[in-house]
Amino acid sequence: MSTDTAPSPERSDFVRDIVASDLREGRVDTVVTRFPPEPNGYLHIGHAKSICLNFGIANDFHGRCNLRFDDTNPLKEEQEYIDSIQADVRWLGFDWQERLYFASDYFEQLYEWAVRLITDGKAYVDDQSADEIRAHRGTLTEPGVPSPCRDRSVAESLDLFERMRAGEFPNGARVLRAKIDMAAGNINMRDPVMYRILHTAHPRTADAWCIYPSYDFAHGQSDAIEGVTHSICTLEFQDHRPLYDWFTANLPVPSVPHQYEFARLNLTHTVLSKRLLLRLVNEGIVRGWDDPRMPTLSGLRRRGFPAEGLRDFVSMVGVARADSVVEIEMMEHAVRDVLNRSALRRFAVLDPLKVVIENYPEDLVEEMDVPNNPEDPDCGTRAVPFTRELWIERDDFLEDPPSKFFRLAPGREVRLRSAYFITCAEVVKDDDGRIVELRCTYDPATRGGSAPDGRRPKATLHWLSASHTAPAVVRLYDHLFASPYPSARGTDILEDVNPGSEVVLTGCLVEPSLSQTRVGETVQFERLGYFCPDRDSAPGALVFNRTLGLRDTWAKVQAQGR
Ligand code: ATP
Ligand code: MG
Q1: Is 38 an annotated catalytic residue?
Q2: Pocket perturbation via mutation, ligand 1, pick of 13, 15, 47, 237 by most ligand atoms within 8 A of CB
Q3: Average pLDDT score over residue span 276-284
Q4: Is the Cβ atom of 272 under 6 angstroms away from ligand 1?
Q5: Could you report the per-residue pLDDT of 63-101, keeping only the tens digit for each?
Q6: DSSP letters along 32-69, please?
Q7: Average pLDDT, stretch 237-264?
Q8: What's the longest Cα–Cα distance across the chain?
Q9: C-alpha distances in Å from residue 360, one per residue of 179, 241, 461
Q10: Is the model's pLDDT at 562 over the cut of 80?
Q11: How many Å lie between the centroid of ligand 2 and the Cα of residue 206?
Q12: Residue 397 in contact with residue 405, Cβ under 8 Å?
């Protein structure tokens, strides 16, 4: 996506309306946004909403969007997260060009500004502990209690702050606080903490610092340094806006950003909180941050969701100021829509049942011409070998079928996709009565899948030649949480994990050509769903993930909601 695409007129939301009017009325010349992750976890689909909004606005209005890490808390931040976040934003289709920034790059400037506030009598070093500060903050109805240190002299605060930086005090011994208003109705304005002592190495500044700015002190000033015009964030920061404005009003910042808040994305059957996702990882409930059940971008990618489908989903959701929960089926619908157009069709048999075609020559191998994508003739066809012994899906046969079962049964004729019509003549069982083989006959006149006399079987099955297969393990995925609102029950959220969220099938068989399918490419196993090779896949030991089943359940979910 280049930055010079024309504004897309069909897309509009309240943030774009604000940007458009700011540009029209000359309040800003060039729109500058940023996506500001804290590198304390992997990005999830909620972040995709923020990424698409920030980068999308920059694209639409010929502006710029920075990628900036708000890396102010070394206790929780790791290089692994910094790397994964960059990979995920790129994968989603966005480019920050040379504008990769870190709040930690501004630590020296932020320190100078903190000194400036102390000098101006607008900040002070407080000797109270974090617990004491919290206890004296007051409530929504009661004002806070001023710290005994609130009126200490500028000189003393300057001296203590310098010594905090020099490493003279242990963690938690002192903090720097803004001196605003302990009786403010907005608790964020009751002398918020600007700096804390933390003798911890930082992923980027290593041991250079043992005091770190709070997120609230770093965030707005970082935007100001970068010339961000529209600081777009989620609603929980609305109550912090007066504080951000207070800092920029009281400091000689090079520019004044304006903050606009929009509603977070929430999805049914999952959680979008890095803290909870980290628990799933740490407690071994999933295979890692990129487990295909995770709502992380790397998990969705491993699951086989194309980036285009996620961008479409985010755009369907839109941008609003009211919190809501979106059905996960809507995301699946958007993804299916892309896959239905683009995914190549392949044959795979997950639970194989042997078919022997008694009237088919022993040694003959015919190449059947099978379309790669009926939705897109440009995708051409491929040759799939057909032989006397085949595999079909076990549940495509019933010995004693109920009236609505149209697939194979004794004496019944079905079509094998792009091959022949076959009729079941005999059922072979083992000593335990389990069906091990079907003896069938074929009609040589039906090659390609149609009969000269125009007869049409009621079912078309997928199949594989028994001597042309590759073995595979297939992992079937379903919603990570059984309940649509996993956090609403009040019990420990992990108790709600869907025990059937991953089912591993062994002994599956796939077209040999599927051993060439790359990780990252999603195909349709005909009649079964969309699947992609997992990164655990190896030559001779293929592993596929089920991306999604074929049936779109979104319409049904919508109907229930009405
Ligand atoms: P989490 O609550 O999952 O831990 P966070 O808000 O702490 O996420 P950040 O790294 O601070 O994660 O997020 C970067 C940006 O993404 C922020 O501007 C934040 O507002 C936005 N964001 C985070 N979660 C969502 C969401 N569910 N929907 C939309 N935007 C989100
Ligand atoms: Mg955050």
Answers
A1: yes
A2: 47
A3: 96
A4: yes
A5: 999 999 999 999 999 999 999 999 999 999 999 999 999
A6: EEEE---SSS--BHHHHHHHHHHHHHHHHTT-EEEEEE
A7: 98
A8: 101
A9: 90, 77, 18
A10: no
A11: 22
A12: no
Catalytic-residue membership of 112? no
Neighbour-count burial for 292-329, b at 16+ CB within 10 Å, e otherwise: bbbbbbbbbbbbbbbbbbbbbbbbebebeeeeeebbbb
Phi, psi of 141 (to 5 degrees): -100, -20
- Give the chain's count of helices (H) and strands (E): 13, 27
* Ligand 1 proximity of 274 Cβ (cutoff 6 Å): yes
What integer pLDDT is reported at residue 4 of this predicted model?
Answer: 42
Contact present, 50 and 65 (Cβ < 8 Å):
no
| Residue 233 beta carbon below 6 angstroms from any ligand 1 atom | yes
Backbone angles phi, psi at 427, to 5 degrees: -110, 125
Q: What are phi and psi of 68, to 5 degrees?
A: -125, 125
**CB of residue 295 inside a 6 A radius of ligand 1:** no
> Are the CB atoms for 285 and 259 separated by under 8 Å?
no
- Three-state DSSP class for residue 189: helix
- Taken as a whole, the chain contains a residue count of 562
pLDDT in tens, 113-135: 999 999 999 999 999 999 999 99
Beta bridge partners of 497: 481
pLDDT classification of 491: cutoffs 50, 70, 90: confident
Q: Which atom of ligand 1 is nearest to the CA of 265?
A: 28
| Contacts of range 154-160, beta carbons closer than 8 Å, 24 or more positions apart | 154/118, 154/119, 154/121, 156/125, 157/118, 157/123, 157/124, 157/125, 158/115, 158/118, 158/119, 160/125
From the list 407, 420, 408, the residue with the least C-alpha distance to 455 is 420
Averaged pLDDT of the chain? 95
- What pLDDT was estimated at residue 10? 56
